[in-house]
Write a structure and sequence with these properties.
There is one protein chain. The two termini are about 30 Å apart. This protein has one domain: P-loop containing nucleotide triphosphate hydrolases (Rossmann fold). It is built from 6 helices and 6 strands; from the N terminus they run E-H-E-H-E-H-E-H-H-E-H-E. The radius of gyration is 16 Å and the shape is globular. The longest helix has 24 residues. By secondary structure, it is of the alpha/beta class. Helix content is about 35%, strand content about 15%. Helix 3 runs parallel beside helix 5. A 6-stranded parallel beta sheet has the order 3-2-4-5-1-6.
C-alpha cells in the first residue's frame, strides 16, 4: 500500500540532549508503517561505522532508504583535506536530494545531523534554504542536529528542543551498541 501526504511540513529536532536521531527514526518507522516512502540521510556518520539504525533500516527497504554521506576519514580528526572532500560530497548530495524531492519517489526526507554539518561549515545555509524552498507541498522535510540557526527555527513548522538533564556519559558509561548507536 503506497500512500502520499496531502501536505508536508518542515520539522526540526535540535538541542543538546540525546534523542534527536531516535525521534527522526521513530518518525521514519511510523511513516513506513502507513505506506509512505522515506529517504533518510545521515551526515557526519561514515558508512563503516556500525549502528543499530543502519541494520534495522535494511529490513524496511525499499520503503526506507538510509544513506550515509561522510567518508571514513571522519572516524579520525577532521583535517582541512577531509573538510574539503566532505564539503564537496555534501554539496553534490544536497543537489541529488533536491532532485529526488521533485521526483515524488519519496514522501519524507530526513537530514540527520545536517544542522551539525551546517554548524561545522560543511554545508552552507543557502544550500539548506534552497532545499526548503524547493520542497514540494506534499513532502515532509526533517532536520536534526544542533545548534539550530534562527532562520531554520523560523522556517520550521515543528521544532522540538531535546534537553539533556542527565546522561550516562557523565557517569563514565560509554556508548552501548543497540542503545546509543
Amino acid at each position: 500500500m503506497r500512500n502520499t501526504l496531502k501536505s508536508g511540513l518542515i520539522q526540526l529536532y535540535t538541542g543538546c540532549g540525546k534523542g534527536k536521531t531516535t525521534a527522526a527514526l521513530g518518525l521514519a518507522v511510523r511513516a513506513v508503517g502507513m505506506g509512505l516512502r522515506v529517504y533518510f540521510v545521515q551526515f557526519l556518520k561514515p558508512e563503516s561505522a556500525a549502528s543499530g539504525e543502519m541494520n534495522a533500516c535494511k529490513h524496511l527497504a525499499p520503503q526506507l532508504k538510509l544513506i550515509r554521506l561522510s567518508d571514513d576519514s571522519f572516524l579520525g580528526a577532521i583535517s582541512e583535506e577531509v573538510r574539503k572532500r566532505n564539503k564537496a560530497l555534501y554539496a553534490q548530495d544536497l543537489d541529488k536530494i533536491q532532485e529526488l524531492m521533485q521526483s515524488e519517489e519519496y514522501d519524507v526526507f530526513i537530514l540527520d545531523e545536517s544542522v551539525n554539518a551546517l554548524h561545522l561549515g560543511l554545508i552552507k545555509w543557502p544550500q539548506l534554504e534552497s532545499l526548503i524552498e524547493a520542497k514540494p507541498a506534499q513532502v515532509e522535510l526533517v532536520f536534526t542536529g544542533q545548534p539550530a540557526p534562527a532562520q531554520l527555527i523560523e522556517l520550521a513548522d515543528l521544532v522540538s528542543n531535546v534537553e539533556m538533564v542527565k546522561h550516562p556519559y557523565q557517569q563514565g558509561i560509554k556508548a552501548r551498541a543497540g542503545i546509543e548507536y
